[in-house]
Amino acid sequence: MCGLSGEIRFDGRAADIGAVGRMTDAMHERGPDGSGLWSQGPVALGHRRLKIIDLSDKAAQPMVDSALGLAAVFNGCLYNYRELREELRAEGYRFFSTSDTEVLVKAFHRWGPDCVGRFTGMFAFAVLERDTGRLTLGRDRLGIKPMYVARDAERLRFASSLPALLAGGGVDTDIDRVALHHYMTFHSVVPAERTILTGVRKLPPATVRTVEADGTTADHCYWRPPFTRSALPEYAGLTAGEWHEAVLDRLRTAVRRRMVADVPVGVLLSGGLDSSMIVALLAEEGQRGLSTFSIGFQAAGGESGDEFAYSDLVAERFGTDHHRIPVDDSRLLPALEHAVGAMSEPMVSHDCVAFHLLSQEVSRHVKVVQSGQGADEVFAGYSWYPPLAGVAREEAAGVYAGEFFDRPHHALAQILTPDYLVDEDVSGAFVRRHLAAPGADTALDAVLRLDTSVMLVDDPVKRVDNMTMAYGLEARTPFLDHELVELAAACPPELKLAHGGKGVLKEASRGLLPAEIVDRPKGYFPVPAVRHIHGPFLELVRDALTGPAARSRGLFDRAYVDRLLAAPDEHRTTLGANALWQVGLLELWLQARGV
């Protein structure tokens, strides 16, 4: 887990190593254990290192293999790197380190860009071929590791974070109006390739991009699981009980894979079903003294701020070395400002602050944790899934938008100023195109495919990466193991919807977890002081929305902002999020980025 950056020029000039150095320095928190720069003619690469596998300097990056004519930078972890190394050794390759980065380099030499199909893990990488000048960028199947890109006629730059690209300079920081529409409508999700800034794009998940020396590019999407019952013929005709066993078996494998490290691995234990299953399966594997971590906040607005009763129950059951992290409200305001600074893109979810504070504390104990993100999207655990059961495919987009979108397209005319409006309902059109694509048996299958490949990538997964990496903490997500996702995609929807959602997962957990955990109400990372804005939090948002920068930008209708500020907790989106926080967070983020 690290931060990578680089530049390739198309105008005959040498790469700007100074700009790549600034980009690399901007990612110090992602990789506090080391840094490196390398350049050759039109290409420069930069890297910040977090030492997880092969702690020696032999694994330093950028990694150059002169014999193979390759130079590479890599962010993430290949969980099957040992198996791949043995396969490559059998084919005559010799290794100078025990790192997964070197495995990636030699796998690329052996199989070319198709090597991604052999990788099990989370990854973003750039590989330069010396003899052709070709640069290849790749991103893992579920977009767990980020890759941001900025391009003009003269050069292409890339980095693990958007702020790093800004540090390099020369980026168009105008607001992307289509991305803004998504942000205000599609529950703050901005799908790849767009970001809120016109000059920055994201490499989509499951994509390999080839950049030739003359600037010609080509993208290849290498993974798109079908959400059909026929996708995995070997599972056809399974009983419900057999599905429970199949899911549990795949999850066991996913959790086991994510213990690969040369440093200790802990678990973020919320006390919910997902993180509790990870702890239970690690205990089943024989893990003893496992470090687990839970966070809690003070109550506000009549809402509890912790779930310690549940996490304590799981920790006691499995004998973990458990760390309760209670957070006093006095720490929230500075943490909120730091969390905004750590965001590569604006992220509305209040649990960003929770993850940020949790990561700060956890990083004092371990460098790697497993986390339960992704289970709700993969196994249909959210409230908007049951209304889609039995809905005709042609009606799915309307039902989904009614349940999930923050507001309809026409409402933006009273929120955004005319310069920032778009004529078309671009978010609705995006969802309709996605749901109409072949490869999904039912409306619910199509929505789960959308959420798994889009919403999951550009909300919870991005949130966890940004907040944990702000403290050099690597988060691993077994529920996003691609083989488990493929199995879940083929699982009958009625099994996923059972028991109020995640039914197949709940049944798989019985016998492993106490009934109080399996059958508990759905939880989350509660941060009541952010959900119910008052006091210094309200003043922070008020200053952001009414100050000179906001007035100069002229993004939001003044009358709309005044209504929100007059009643900060009354205006809610479809799913109950605070509407004031949504607009305030965007201004806070833009101002933090200096745009």
UniProtKB/TrEMBL annotation:
Binding-site residues for L-glutamine, renumbered to this chain: 100
Reactions catalysed according to its record: L-aspartate + L-glutamine + ATP + H2O = L-asparagine + L-glutamate + AMP + diphosphate + H(+)
Keyword annotations: Amino-acid biosynthesis, Asparagine biosynthesis, ATP-binding, Glutamine amidotransferase, Ligase, Nucleotide-binding
Key word Ribonucleoprotein present: no
Any one GO cellular component localisation term in the record: cytosol
Residues of the active site: 2 (for gatase activity)
The UniProt record lists the keyword Amino-acid biosynthesis: yes
Positions of ATP binding: 268, 295, 371-372
Pfam families assigned to the protein according to its UniProt record, in alphabetical order: Asn_synthase, GATase_7
UniProt-listed GO biological process terms: asparagine biosynthetic process
Pathway connected to this protein: Amino-acid biosynthesis; L-asparagine biosynthesis; L-asparagine from L-aspartate (L-Gln route): step 1/1
Ranges in coiled-coil conformation: none
GO MF entries: asparagine synthase (glutamine-hydrolyzing) activity; ATP binding
Domain Glutamine amidotransferase type-2: 2-214
Highest taxon of source: Bacteria
EC number: 6.3.5.4
Family indicated by similarity: Belongs to the asparagine synthetase family.
PANTHER family for this protein: ASPARAGINE SYNTHETASE (PTHR43284:SF1), ASPARAGINE SYNTHETASE (GLUTAMINE-HYDROLYZING) (PTHR43284)
Protein name: asparagine synthase (glutamine-hydrolyzing)
